[in-house]
Design a protein that fits this description.
about 150 residues, alpha+beta, Alpha-D-Glucose-1,6-Bisphosphate, Chain A, domain 4, seven-stranded antiparallel sheet
Length: about 150
C-alpha cells in the first residue's frame, strides 16, 4: 500500500479538473507516450517504464470511477508488457485548504508480476513513491498560475 499527500496551489474545483483532464494525465503519468480515450473515463495508454534494471513497454488500461465531483475518485491502471504486469488501484481525495490551495491525499495498492517482480520487488516502494512525486510535480506545472 502506497499513500501520501501533496498540497497544490489552486482551488479544489480547478485541481479536480486538471487531475481528470486526459491531456494533463498524459503529461503527468510517468513514461506515458500515448493516452487515447476509448469511452468516457476509460483510456488506453502506451507506457515506457523502467523499474530497477528492468525496462520495457507496456500497454495499459486506465479507468476513472467512483467519482464524487471535487472530492474523490478511484483510479485503476492495469498494464502488461514483456517485463511482466503492473496493476495499480487507488483513491484520490481532495480537500480545500482555504480558497487557493487543495490538499490531495492518495492511497494505492500496487501489484507486479513477471520479471519486473523478481528483479524490482525490493525497490518497488521507492520507485512507486518517486513516480507519484513525478506525477504530482507534472500536475503542479499544469495548474493555472496565480
Amino acid at each position: 500500500m502506497l499513500n501520501g499527500k501533496v498540497e497544490l496551489q489552486a482551488a479544489q474545483d480547478v485541481v479536480w479538473k486538471v487531475l481528470l483532464d486526459p491531456n494533463s494525465l498524459k503529461q503527468a503519468i510517468p513514461g506515458c507516450e500515448e493516452l487515447v480515450e476509448l469511452e468516457p473515463d476509460h483510456y488506453q495508454a502506451n507506457l515506457k517504464l523502467g523499474i530497477a534494471a528492468v525496462r520495457g513497454a507496456y500497454q495499459a488500461r486506465v479507468q476513472v470511477s467512483d467519482q464524487y465531483p471535487n472530492e474523490q475518485y478511484r483510479l485503476r491502471i492495469e498494464g502488461s508488457g514483456a517485463p511482466g504486469f503492473v496493476n495499480i488501484d487507488g483513491t484520490i481525495r481532495l480537500a480545500a485548504q482555504g480558497d487557493a490551495s487543495t490538499m490531495v491525499e492518495y492511497d494505492y495498492d500496487v501489484k507486479v508480476g513477471g520479471t519486473i517482480a523478481a528483479v524490482g520487488q525490493r525497490v518497488l516502494g521507492g520507485v512507486a513513491k518517486y513516480m507519484m512525486g513525478e506525477f504530482f510535480k507534472a500536475m503542479r506545472n499544469q495548474l493555472p498560475q496565480a
